[in-house]
C-alpha cells in the first residue's frame, strides 16, 4: 500500500513531529508498505531514505519561526498527489494542508488527519475563542475519514463536538534513549560535584513556556538546592531567555539544537530531572525520551503529559510547584528505574502497528463499499 504523508514545519532542526514522521515512515517501510512523505523546503528534491521516499516542494518561510516552512501552492501539491497516486493519505498539519482531506475524498482515497497540536490550546494561549477552535475542528472532522490523536487530552477538543477520534500513542527509541547513556564526563562539564542537573529540551517559543524552567531553577537555588540548568533547543525566545538568566545570575547553559541524537541521549541520561513546562503539549516526545533515559519529568498539569509520564514524574501548575516537584523527585530512590519502566510501555513498534491497523481498516472499508477504488 502506498501511504502518502504530508506535513509542514519540518526542518533539520525540528523536534517531535520530525521524529514521529521518521519513525512511522521507517515502520511502514519495514512492514512492506510504500511510504511517501511530502514536506516543504527551500527547493525541490525527491530522494529515497530509510523512512521511504521524501518529496520536498518549495515553500516559503514563516516569519519569526526559525526557518519553518509551509506548503502554499495547492496546485503543485495536488499535481504531486496525482503523480504519486496514493492508496492512503495521512496529513500531519492543521494549517495550510487542511484541504487535503477534501481532495482525498473527491479522488476516492481514504484519509486521516493526525492531530499533533491543540488548536483549542493555541487559541487560548494567543487570545482566540473556543468557538473558533470548535468551528475549525468540526470542519476538519467532516473533511477527513478519520482523525487520530495521540492522547485523550488531544482528543478532547474533537470529542466534545461529537466527532469520532482514534487514539494511538507515539513511541520512543528505547535503544537510543537509555540509562546506559549516562556520561560522567558530560556531567562534570555542566555541573559541579553535588549540583542537581536539570534539563529543558524543546523549542524556545511562547507556547512552550521555557521561562518557567528558568523560574524553577531560581526557586530551587533560593531554597538552597544547588541546581544548574542545560537548555537544549533553539527558537525566537532564546535571546530574551539568555538575557534573563544573566540578569538573575542563574547558571543556565544554552546548547542550542543538538543534531547529534546520541549527544541528546547522553544529556538526557545524565540529567537528574527533566522539565517540560509547555501547557498545550499533546504528547511530549522529549519528555518520553527523558523517561527512556532514566530521568524523571516535571510537566505542566495543563498539558497531555500527565497521561504520558504517569507516576514516573510529577505534574505541576506554578513556578513554586515545579520547584517543589523537583525536590520531591530527587528524594525518590527508585526514580530512575520508574522512569525507564514507564517509557518501556511506549515502543515505536506499538505505535506503528496502531497506525497501520487504522490505515488498512480504512482501505478495506473503501474497497468494500465501492468494489474498487477510484484513483487519482
Molecular structure report:
With 376 residues, this protein is of the alpha/beta class. The chain has 2 domains: 2-171 and 347-370, 3-Layer(aba) Sandwich (Rossmann fold), CATH 3.40.50; 179-343, Rossmann fold, CATH 3.40.50. 42% of the residues lie in helices and 19% in strands. It is built from 15 helices and 14 strands. The chain has helices spanning 16-30, 74-84, 100-106, 119-125, 130-143, 152-159, 184-190, 211-222, 238-248, 261-270, 285-292, 305-309, 319-330, 335-343, 348-370; strands at residues 2-7, 34-41, 45-49, 52-58, 88-92, 111-115, 146-149, 165-167, 196-201, 227-232, 252-256, 273-276, 297-300, 313-316. The strands form 2 sheets. Strands 3-4-2-1-5-6-7-8 form an 8-stranded mixed sheet, sandwiched between helices. A 6-stranded parallel sheet has the order 11-10-9-12-13-14, with helices on both faces. Helix 1 (16-30) crosses helix 15 (348-370), helix 8 packs across helix 13 and helix 11 (285-292) packs across helix 14. The longest helix has 23 residues, at 348-370. It is globular, with a radius of gyration of 21 Å. The two termini are 14 Å apart. Mean pLDDT is 92; it is low at 369-376. GO terms for molecular function: glycosyltransferase activity. Residues 192-344 form the Glycosyl transferase family domain.
Amino acid at each position: 500500500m502506498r501511504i502518502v504523508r504530508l506535513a509542514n514545519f519540518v526542518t533539520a532542526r525540528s523536534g517531535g513531529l520530525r521524529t514521529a514522521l521518521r519513525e512511522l515512515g521507517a515502520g511502514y517501510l519495514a512492514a512492506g508498505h510504500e511510504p511517501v512523505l511530502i514536506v516543504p523546503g527551500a527547493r525541490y528534491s525527491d530522494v529515497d531514505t530509510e523512512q521511504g521516499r521524501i518529496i520536498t516542494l518549495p515553500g516559503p518561510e514563516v516569519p519569526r519561526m526559525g526557518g519553518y516552512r509551509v506548503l502554499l501552492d495547492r496546485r503543485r501539491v495536488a499535481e504531486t498527489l496525482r503523480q504519486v497516486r496514493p492508496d492512503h493519505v495521512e496529513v500531519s498539519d492543521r494549517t495550510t494542508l487542511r484541504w487535503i482531506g477534501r481532495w482525498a475524498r473527491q479522488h476516492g482515497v481514504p484519509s486521516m488527519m493526525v492531530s499533533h497540536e491543540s488548536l483549542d490550546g493555541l487559541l487560548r494561549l494567543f487570545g482566540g475563542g473556543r468557538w473558533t477552535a470548535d468551528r475549525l475542528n468540526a470542519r476538519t472532522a467532516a473533511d477527513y475519514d478519520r482523525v487520530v490523536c495521540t492522547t485523550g487530552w488531544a482528543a478532547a477538543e474533537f470529542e466534545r463536538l461529537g466527532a469520532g477520534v482514534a487514539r494511538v500513542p507515539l513511541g520512543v527509541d528505547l535503544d537510543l534513549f537509555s540509562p546506559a547513556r549516562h556520561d560522567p564526563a558530560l556531567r562534570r562539564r555542566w555541573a559541579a560535584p553535588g549540583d542537581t542537573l536539570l534539563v529543558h529540551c524543546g523549542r524556545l517559543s511562547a507556547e512552550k513556556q521555557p521561562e518557567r524552567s528558568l523560574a524553577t531553577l531560581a526557586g530551587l537555588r533560593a531554597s538552597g538546592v544547588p541546581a544548574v540548568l542545560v537548555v537544549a533547543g533553539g527558537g525566537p525566545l532564546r535571546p530574551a531567555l539568555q538575557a534573563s538568566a544573566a540578569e538573575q545570575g542563574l547558571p543556565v547553559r544554552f546548547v542550542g539544537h543538538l543534531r547529534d541524537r546520541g549527544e541528546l541521549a547522553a544529556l538526557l541520561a545524565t540529567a537528574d530531572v527533566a522539565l517540560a513546562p509547555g501547557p498545550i503539549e499533546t504528547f511530549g516526545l522529549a519528555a518520553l525520551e527523558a523517561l527512556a533515559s532514566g530521568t524523571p519529568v516535571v510537566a505542566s498539569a495543563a498539558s497531555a503529559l500527565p497521561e504520558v509520564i504517569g507516576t514516573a514524574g510529577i505534574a505541576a501548575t506554578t513556578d513554586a510547584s515545579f520547584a517543589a516537584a523537583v525536590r520531591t523527585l530527587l528524594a525518590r530512590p527508585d526514580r530512575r528505574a520508574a522512569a525507564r519502566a514507564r517509557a518501556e510501555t511506549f515502543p515505536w513498534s506499538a505505535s506503528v502497528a496502531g497506525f497501520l491497523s487504522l490505515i488498512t481498516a480504512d482501505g478495506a472499508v473503501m474497497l468494500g463499499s465501492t468494489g474498487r477504488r477510484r484513483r487519482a
